[in-house]
């Protein structure tokens, strides 16, 4: 009996453990932190052996295969030992993909991947395809493979999940964009992070498809230097493309082998240029999978976005409060500030991942009237924007930040939570940060 060790008992870890157990592996789950009661009960229910608050090495180093949670970096000593002992260390995505014959749409990118994943799933489901959504969203891929396997999956994939693949190959890969993110995990080398994102194309063949932002210089350069086997379908806001998607005037055109779909941008439910790109990516996937054109158009017209991504919460005294907690990097915040049409009080801060704030200067100069820092250490933000904005305030809780914003913002202005940073200093995750923001706004 082969031994599967799972490091990390979160959604992906517990899903992998269940799948491994069902497929006849001897399974051991080890988590250095505490395991939540919910996941403990699941493990007990499936009679899976587990431990918490430690890693017992002699129970781990005799594994045939190890699935590590995407949150555990490669530089951890235990992971290095596994590599030295020649034990394969893979991601949940790799493990689960061995046990399904489903066609996979894999979506990655520094920004836009959640919106694109949900939008793609929305169109495919409405188009009559039996499809699940997993990866960074909802129930884990592994859990769905074991409990409710479907012929198609739309997977939102982080670079950490892609780092742990060996044979995994999506039939359709989507790369929304690449901007510096998570550099703390990639030795602060942007090229390592870029290579990690492109692992989505690693095992694709000529029969597969790669949909990508054709305006992104970093992506274009990488493709020129590293030929990709799958069929290339770019989307662009600036130039016509023969196969793929482009914007001309106020109209999107998507062409695949002379089969054309057009749609006016004014009909898109999600506003902003970045959402035009997300819609292009989702529509290209849908067209490849032969969804009816009327269905694609209707779905792009009625899809209303993702929680914590430029989400309008409330208008109070004519001030619009906007929750963009999902903006965990500078580029995401760039889109958020760009979307603000009037003066904005900006709530920013958290765990900095090696951010370079300079690209925000023009937008901050133009739109931001005050900055409210929300982090344990705000020195980098204060240094970065001290010359752009006169009013910079430090706060230590969401309630305090929102109350301060309420005092500063005036009629017809915005209060924007768009942190540009990870949330782990004061919150469990970006969802909790966003929920606290919405609660604090409702209490005003």
UniProtKB/TrEMBL annotation:
It catalyses: UDP-N-acetyl-alpha-D-muramoyl-L-alanine + D-glutamate + ATP = UDP-N-acetyl-alpha-D-muramoyl-L-alanyl-D-glutamate + ADP + phosphate + H(+). InterPro entries: Mur-like_cat_sf (IPR036565), Mur_ligase_C (IPR004101), Mur_ligase_C_dom_sf (IPR036615), Mur_ligase_cen (IPR013221), MurD (IPR005762). PANTHER family: UDP-N-ACETYLMURAMOYLALANINE--D-GLUTAMATE LIGASE. This is UDP-N-acetylmuramoylalanine--D-glutamate ligase. Residues 308-421 form the Mur ligase C-terminal domain. It is found in: Cytoplasm. Signal peptide: none annotated. It comes from Aquimarina amphilecti.
């Amino acid at each position: 009996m082969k031994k599967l060790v799972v490091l990390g008992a979160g959604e992906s870890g517990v899903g992998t453990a269940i799948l491994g157990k069902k497929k006849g592996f001897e399974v051991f789950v080890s988590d250095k932190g505490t395991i939540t009661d919910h996941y403990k009960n699941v493990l007990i229910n499936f009679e899976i052996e587990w431990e918490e608050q430690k890693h017992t090495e002699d129970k781990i180093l005799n594994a045939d295969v190890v699935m590590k949670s995407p949150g555990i970096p490669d530089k951890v000593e235990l992971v290095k030992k596994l590599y030295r002992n020649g034990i394969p260390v893979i991601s949940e995505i790799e493990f689960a993909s061995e046990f399904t014959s489903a066609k996979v749409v894999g979506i990655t990118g520094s920004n836009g991947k959640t919106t694109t994943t949900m939008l793609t799933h929305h169109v495919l489901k409405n188009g009559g395809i039996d499809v699940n959504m997993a990866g960074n969203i909802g129930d884990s891929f592994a859990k769905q493979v074991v409990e409710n396997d479907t012929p198609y999956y739309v997977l939102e994939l982080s670079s950490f999940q892609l780092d742990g693949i060996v044979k995994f190959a999506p039939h359709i890969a989507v790369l929304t964009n690449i901007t510096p993110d998570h550099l703390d995990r990639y030795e602060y080398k942007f090229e390592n992070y870029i290579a990690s994102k492109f692992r989505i194309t690693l095992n694709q063949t000529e029969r597969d498809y790669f949909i990508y932002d054709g305006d992104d210089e970093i992506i274009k350069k990488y493709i020129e230097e590293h030929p990709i086997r799958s069929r290339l379908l770019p989307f662009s806001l600036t130039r016509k493309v023969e196969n793929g998607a482009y914007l001309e005037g106020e109209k999107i055109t998507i062409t695949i082998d002379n089969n054309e779909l057009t749609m006016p941008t004014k009909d898109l439910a999600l506003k902003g240029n970045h959402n035009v790109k997300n819609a292009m990516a989702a529509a290209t996937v849908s067209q490849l999978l032969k969804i009816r054109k009327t269905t694609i158009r209707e779905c792009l017209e009625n899809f209303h976005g993702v929680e914590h991504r430029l989400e309008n919460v409330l208008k109070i005294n004519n001030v619009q409060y906007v929750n963009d907690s999902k903006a965990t990097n500078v580029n995401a915040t760039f889109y958020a500030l760009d979307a603000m049409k009037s003066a904005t009080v900006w709530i920013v801060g958290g765990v900095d991942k090696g951010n370079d704030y300079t690209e925000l200067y023009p937008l901050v100069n133009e739109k931001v009237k005050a900055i409210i820092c929300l982090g344990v250490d705000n020195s980098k933000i204060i240094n970065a924007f001290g010359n752009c904005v006169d009013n910079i305030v430090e706060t230590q809780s969401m309630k305090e930040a929102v109350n301060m914003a309420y005092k500063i913002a005036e009629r017809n202005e915005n209060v924007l939570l768009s942190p540009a940073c990870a949330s782990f200093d004061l919150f469990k995750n970006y969802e909790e940060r966003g929920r606290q923001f919405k609660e604090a706004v409702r209490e005003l």
